[in-house]
Design brief:
125 residues; 60% strand; 4-stranded antiparallel β-sheet; 0% helix; mainly beta
Length: 125
Amino acid sequence: MNFFSVSSDGRITQWTIVKSELRYTDIITLKQGNTTEGEGDNTQLPSLGCGTAFDFHKTMDYMFLVGTEEGKIHKCSKTYSSQFLETYDAHHMAVYSVKWNHFHPKIFISCSADWTVKIWDHHYL
């Protein structure tokens, strides 16, 4: 038995129950880059993104979407844990929910604290 979780510390985690023990594996850590300007150079300081919602694709079980507190949606894969497949600047506030369409595998929907609901085609953005 296993299940997944998303949390505000930026971790997407797979949990597995083995006998009487609960084990976890981090699938991906949401990172966002903040640029600081120093003496003539720009430095990337990674900070953690806050995950708020996620959903796995219904037919491609390796692919999933993650909504963030910053209003972005990241398309991710379990096989590429260090990068996003795509990042959508989706909303102006936190993404409360993101769901793949059960009937059309290219379409997903998102809703946000900015009072909007958006329908997306993940191939044409």
